[in-house]
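Anyone up for a design puzzle?
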């Protein structure tokens, strides 16, 4: 059976024109199949965040093609792209962007309510499920500002999972955490990959994190210089 292609980048290039014309991405091509756990690494400034911004449909100014779930993301209105993001992509950033005036549960529910697919009760039930799965069900009714940094990142992961996304995209999800919490968050990603076959694309500086994913894409000066199954690294 052919594995489903969740995301395809075809000849993606991007340049910034201010103040000088600089090519930041150059002919980036790869596919991500369902169930892959992919890390993207490379030196600071090599274009990782710029690429992730394009792949997540937030930046629409580039050359080449982005396909998500078999659909070409070109000439689409912002509201259509927002719908694709909300339905198919779960985001985990370096900073969690939780709303501090809301409870943990309400934060996790937000993208679920925005999707407008499930009743409020169902969204709440799903949010509780995700929190419990990540071992933080007991925090549900706490104010999101009154939990630790590591807990905040786990809440952000629960929030990213609320709509059962096709792919989770992370930009330095352990970048702001100490070693212990980084490892905990990594273990969660690993469990999502192994137990739930969750497709993930994670940009990271952390090579020990990257070594434990299933595939590593290495970038240099806006190009992919290596794209290997991680077992090849050891
Ligand atoms: N809006 C912009 N205008 C001009 N140049 C930009 C802009 N955004 C990024 N760049 C340049 O594009 C290049 C790639 O930046 P990008 O943030 O994608 O790198 P990165 O690999 O994610 O770096 P880091 O690991 O430090 O986050 C850098 O040289 C950066 O200075």
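Challenge accepted. My sequence:
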């Amino acid at each position: 059976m052919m594995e489903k292609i969740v995301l395809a980048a075809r000849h993606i290039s991007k340049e910034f024109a201010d103040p000088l014309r600089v090519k930041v991405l150059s002919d980036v091509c790869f596919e991500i199949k369902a169930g892959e756990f992919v890390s993207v690494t490379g030196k600071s400034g090599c274009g990782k965040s710029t690429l992730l911004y394009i792949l997540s449909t937030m930046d629409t100014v580039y050359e080449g093609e982005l396909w998500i779930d078999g659909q070409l993301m070109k000439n689409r209105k912002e509201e259509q792209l927002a719908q694709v993001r909300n339905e198919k992509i779960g985001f985990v950033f370096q900073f969690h962007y939780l709303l501090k005036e809301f409870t943990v549960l309400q934060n996790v529910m937000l993208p679920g309510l925005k999707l407008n697919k499930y009743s409020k009760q169902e969204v709440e039930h799903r949010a509780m499920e995700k929190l419990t799965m990540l071992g933080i069900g007991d925090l549900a009714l706490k104010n999101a500002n009154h939990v630790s940094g590591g807990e905040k990142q786990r809440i952000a992961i629960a929030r990213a999972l609320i709509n059962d996304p096709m792919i989770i995209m992370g930009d330095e999800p352990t970048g702001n955490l100490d070693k212990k919490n980084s490892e905990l968050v990594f273990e969660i990603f690993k469990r999502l990959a192994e137990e739930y076959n969750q497709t993930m694309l994670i940009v990271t500086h952390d090579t020990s994190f990257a070594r434990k994913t299933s595939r590593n894409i290495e970038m240099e000066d806006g190009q992919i210089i290596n794209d290997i199954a991680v077992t090849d690294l050891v």
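A detail worth pointing out: The pocket of adenosine-5'-triphosphate is lined by residues 16, 18, 24, 42, 44-50 (CB under 6 Å).
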